[in-house]
Amino acid sequence: MFEFIKVFLLESWHILMDSSFYILFGIIIAGVVGVFLNPGTVLNHLGRGRYSSVFKAALLGVPLPL
């Protein structure tokens, strides 16, 4: 049982280390976007309306994982 926990934690650590570059990259991009984009503009495009704001958010969010 303890061997299973040890292997599980070790493999979880390896996955975290493999994905850490992408996590840091995403945090940096989010910070840059937060600094350079005016929150009023984002609210204007994504905060009003029912379907158009959801459609815009989906279009902006689709390429991000790619």
Short descriptors:
single chain; 66 residues; mainly alpha; elongated
Summarize the structure.
By secondary structure, the protein is mainly α. Helix content is 82%, strand content 0%.
Task: Describe the protein's topology.
Layout: H1 2-36, H2 39-46, H3 51-61
Structure description:
The structure is a single chain. This protein has 66 residues and is mainly α. It has one domain (2-61). Helix content is 82%, strand content 0%. It has 3 helices and no strands. The relative contact order is 0.06.
* Main β sheet profile: none
Query: Unreliable stretches, pLDDT < 50, 5 or more residues?
Result: none
Number of DSSP helices? 3
DSSP helix fraction: over 70%
What is the N-to-C succession of helices and strands?
Answer: HHH
Number of strands: 0
Number of domains: 1
Radius of gyration: 19 Å
What structural category do the secondary elements indicate?
A: mainly alpha
- Round the mean pLDDT to the nearest integer and report it: 84
Quaternary structure of the protein = single chain
Shape: elongated
